[in-house]
Amino acid sequence: MDVDGLRQQLDAIKVTDAERVNFLETLIGRIELITAERDEAITKLAHADKFSKYLQTEIKHLETKSRNMEMEMERDPFVLVLIDGDNTKFTDDYIRRGALGGHDAARELRKRIESYMETLEGFQPHWKILVQVFANFSGLSKCYHDKSTFWQFILGFNKEYDLCGYIDAGNDKEAADVNIKGAMGLFYRNVHCKHILLAGSRDGGYTTYLRQYTLTNEVCKRLTLIEALPFAASLKDLSPKFFTTKFEGLFRDCDIQLRKDLPKDHNRPVTPPETPRISYASTVSKGKSKGIELGPLIDFDSSSRLPPSPPPSTSSSNRQQNSHIPRNRHGCRIDPPVHADQKLVYQLKSKKLCNRYFLSSCPYEDCTHNHNAKLTDPELEALKQVARLSPCPRGAWCEDPTCVAGHRCVQDPVCTRGSNCRFAEEMHNVDMKVAEFVTV
């Protein structure tokens, strides 16, 4: 074989080897690309797996949070009962029986509410019932001859049930309205408040406020209007937009007639104030009870329960006859402070002096206590303190201007006698800030 032949074969081999090298380089490049894509996919998969585990953990956390929120939303569900006490009054029988009537009224009201709620879809027996009665105590008490009985009714009402409150809204004519609208605005948006019952049927002033709950054509299923006195005309037109109900025999269906004059022989423990009664009547006639034909005046006879008030005396011994009785914001009588010499107090306690004779007037012809002593001014001041050691039988709402007994526990506010104390419960922790003077 010659050299040229060998060279040709070598050239052929070089071409073949070049093709092999090119193929191998292409194959290696492809392998490198696929390997890089595989590594990237593995990395992404690892990230996805990690994110998936995070999402699963987050989902479990959110599910737990959602369950807790649902449980929280269902915790302590309640029904709110708002009563405008200025125009929705309990019947005479409850008021007449004082504290006992208050207990019975609160108990009966709750019973009626529960019975009514059972007729509504979704009600559960474990729902609590929150009752708030807002009223102008000063004005409302003037509807009754025996104010002390009315105050005792309020005490009994408030003590019957821990979520039941008869609340003094203040002396403004619209004070009860303002409090009720404020409470409704707050609780209507409260998810725990399942239903609201409103008793203020005679006050047309609620109409405008209630329209915000009637923006759709559907009946507002979270609000019930209680009709005691007949609905005011504007409220009657709006009432089909709400549930309505009546509690027969629980609330008065006619208002109270306020009289200007009292019988001259009226001989009861509480002397009714005449002028304030007239002003309250005018307030009612101009305000919420406009156009109502009012019913008879409530007159409670307490003579069988309390001793008669002593007749006014014109003698010089009547040293404590007042025409203005100071009261605190709860209506409790405030005894003016006494600055007595404690040595004189100790001495006078053993002398069996007639406190009423020397400080006011003694109504007893056969009184066995001393009427003959000559007392100095310091001794009279000391005798006032001695007299206040005995609790007034009329309680904290006594309106007898000649009364010399105590209307506040002598150990208040640190009485340690508890239920053994001779002074009634309302005569303890007395607010001594004067809110008004009652003219009698």
Automatic annotation (TrEMBL):
What parts of the sequence cross the membrane? none
Record Pfam families:
DUF7923, zf-CCCH_tandem
Top-level division of the source organism's lineage: Eukaryota
Q: Which stretches make up the DUF7923 domain?
A: 73-251
Residue ranges constituting the Tandem CCCH zinc finger domain according to the UniProt record = 382-433
Start and end residues of each stretch annotated as Disordered: 262-333
Looking up PANTHER family in the UniProt record yields: CCCH ZINC FINGER DNA BINDING PROTEIN (AFU_ORTHOLOGUE AFUA_5G12760) (PTHR37543)
| Name this polypeptide is given | Putative ccch zinc finger dna binding protein
